[in-house]
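Course assignment 3, question 2. Fill in each field.
Student: A.L.
Task: Predict the tertiary structure for the chain below.
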Amino acid sequence: MFISPPKKIPFYLKIAIFIAERTLGKTVMPARILAWYPKAAIGAGVMESLVAHKAGRVTERMLKLVRMQVSFSASCPFCIDLNSAGFEKDSVNAEEIEALQGLREADTVTSLNEREKCALQYARVLTASPLRIPAALQEKLRRLFTEREIVVLAGTIAQVNFWTRLIQGIGVKPAGFSDSCPLLRLDDYVTVDTAEASQPMTGEEDHE
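Answer field:
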């Protein structure tokens, strides 16, 4: 982290941060740093409140896999740590995690069903840059999912992508949500170079 939260945080944001940190049991540093620009904090909070948990055949497990896939594809250590927490509860196994990391082909993982493989491909494509959605993938999505389910998947992928860019942009480190699980290989996904970093900026001045 190369910038620090402001010393003075608006009261209404303090309440929201308190609730978030009490729920997660961790210091939510992204929310604290966003307090530098309250509009961004409020907007991010509203977007987070719209997160889908399941919709039709888009299950909680599928959305867990999709969030993890985006986090790995965008190489965001904080997001990998947060979005992978409790992966065992959603029956995500070691082979599936290796597929998310690109260490094995998803098609070789028999525990992934056809819809899950398609959703993960969609997540990788929408996280890549430049973005290009192959016609074959579009057809597969239409065959395997309803319009509403596709919107839920696209919204989830976009939402996680927003956080990966923002969190990496302000240099927030993993918070220990996944208890440093070795399967996640967090050290392989460091994106903020700290070799030349000085102490975090703490000035209160407005740099607009």
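Instructor remarks: The domain at 53-189 is CATH 1.20.1290.10 (AhpD-like). The mean pLDDT is 90.
Grade: pending
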